[in-house]
Specification:
Blueprint lengths: L1 H6 L2 H21 L13 H14 L7 H21 L3 E3 L4 E3 L4 H23 L5 H28 L13
Antiparallel strand pairs: 1-2
């Protein structure tokens, strides 16, 4: 038990904080509230930082960059597909965007945070087989790729989307 406490360092705190911030930044979108189109990218740097730092924290002999890149690629493809078909409303007058069914981003962010905790727990537990840590790190990369690609696809679509009124005017 004492050895696991000694292995804990500041990077563990940074990675878990970045995963938590990813969730917090996607709450407004998941609730169906309007937001500026650029805010679609608010959670992306934190998700990507979580994935990159987890890969960097793995022991060099157990690091699997091909699995990590494969997870990132699968996440990018799935995020681009979801972002291409996700319905949204855009108010050009106020430069606001609303995702009525945008809870998938929050679910993926929660999965990113859970897999981050699994990877960190596996590394702190010092398991003899690193498969759990490596697999969880690959899933974190897939989640980060999904969020980045989904945001990019939605932003690209918002450039040519028709105007819809989101501002509520009293009767």
């Amino acid at each position: 038990m004492f050895e696991a406490v000694q292995k804990f360092n500041i990077l563990h705190l940074i990675v878990t904080s970045a995963a938590g911030l990813t969730i917090l930044l996607l709450l407004r979108e998941a609730r169906g509230r309007s937001l500026p189109p650029g805010q679609l990218f608010g959670a992306v740097p934190f998700a990507l930082a979580t994935a990159v730092l987890l890969l960097a924290m793995e022991a060099p002999e157990t690091r699997e960059p091909r699995l990590w890149l494969g997870g990132l690629f699968v996440g990018i493809v799935l995020g681009a597909v979801r972002g291409s078909f996700l319905k949204f409303q855009l108010d050009r007058m106020y430069s606001r965007l609303r995702l009525p069914a945008g809870r998938d981003g929050l679910w993926v962010a929660c999965m990113l945070a859970f897999c981050t905790l699994v990877a960190l727990g596996a590394s702190l537990a010092n398991l003899p087989d690193p498969a759990l840590e490596v697999g969880a790190t690959g899933l974190v990369a897939a989640c980060a790729g999904y969020l980045a690609s989904r945001a990019a696809a939605l932003w690209r679509r918002s450039l040519s989307a028709p105007h819809q009124y989101l501002h509520h005017t009293p009767p």
